[in-house]
Amino acid sequence: AQSVAQPEDQVNVAEGNPLTVKCTYSVSGNPYLFWYVQYPNRGLQFLLKYITGDNLVKGSYGFEAEFNKSQTSFHLKKPSALVSDSALYFCAVRDNTGGFKTIFGAGTRLFVKA
Amino acid sequence: GAVVSQHPSWVICKSGTSVKIECRSLDFQATTMFWYRQFPKQSLMLMATSNEGSKATYEQGVEKDKFLINHASLTLSTLTVTSAHPEDSSFYICSASVGQGFSYNSPLHFGNGTRLTVT
Questions:
Q1: pLDDT for B15-34, tens place per residue?
Q2: Does B103 touch chain A (CB under 8 A)?
Q3: Can you say how many angstroms the Cα of residue A18 is from the centroid of all Cα atoms in its chain?
Q4: Mean pLDDT by 10 residues, chain A (114 residues)
Q5: Hey, of A100, A103, A109, A111, which one would you mutate to test binding to chain B, going by the most B CBs within 10 A of its CB?
Q6: Residue B87: helix, strand or coil by DSSP?
Q7: Among A98, B56, B80, B95, whose Cα sits 20 to 30 Å from the Cα of B67?
Q8: How far is Cα of residue A6 from the mean position of the Cα atoms in its chain?
Q9: Which residues of B touch A44 (CB under 8 A)?
Q10: Rounded (5°) CA angle B2-B29-B108
């Protein structure tokens, strides 16, 4: 069965510092991985995805993610955090066994302090 | 592009009444939409997959008679919470993927969610 783990409930970082939000996954077959961000009382917004190709994927708002097959990880990164990046971040894996479901991690709340 | 509109954004209803939530894809057609439920400080729980012109596929543990889903057109899916009770209070979010059919490559596009409070 597909699964996603986000080991950190919360990540705190100072504005201007690099940030990393961790994600590990378990899938059978090729992984289809996504990152989404959620602001309070809103739906989720797509940030980036990994399907195949380069291990470093660039996405919206300066975010990028590094796919590591051997460690089954897909960590979200940003070189310089902004206060406005404070939000809830979800890692997700697409069920590639024919069910089309997207399975979400528990979410990591990012706090960027000015 | 790829805008999903969800309405209402919030609703308060009395116990025993029914509430309908609409999810529309404004600038694309979506043969498949997904309904999620999100509890406070928790992740999204997939409730059901809504397929245009056919019955929805419900996840295990989700009562299909309580959460009625109708996907009458390529741009509209509705979730009706029937005989609502306080434990149904939650944040409900719909999503859709661009394009007819479905591609594993396609990200989901989400509505802004509906906060339901049952008193």
A1: 999 999 999 999 888 888 99
A2: no
A3: 15
A4: 90 98 90 92 90 90 95 97 96 76 91 96
A5: A100
A6: helix
A7: A98
A8: 9
A9: 44, 93, 95, 108, 110
A10: 45
